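Hi V.,

You were right to ask for the full record rather than a summary. Here it is.
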Amino acid sequence: MSLRPRHRSVRNSQGLRERLLTIGHVLSCVHVTGHNCYELTIAVRDAEHLEQVIERLTELGDTTTAVVLSEPVHPRDVDIAAWIAKDGAGPRCWGE
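Predicted structure:
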């Protein structure tokens, strides 16, 4: 979910952190570039619960919601050490 705060008090990282922790259900929040200022990962039970959390978050600003349908590549599938290896071997999948 993306959040674009409307008010300066919410744009302050500490103020936003406090508000999100009060709302609950937020697993992570990262500050990003682009049109939306923050990307949130939230945990909800079902569509009705998602709607309730969105309503609470819209008190802070404008939201855009995306639902994860699947995860074809998971972080643990990628051998990041290979990316930084000096031998030029490149990335390698753990499953190979």
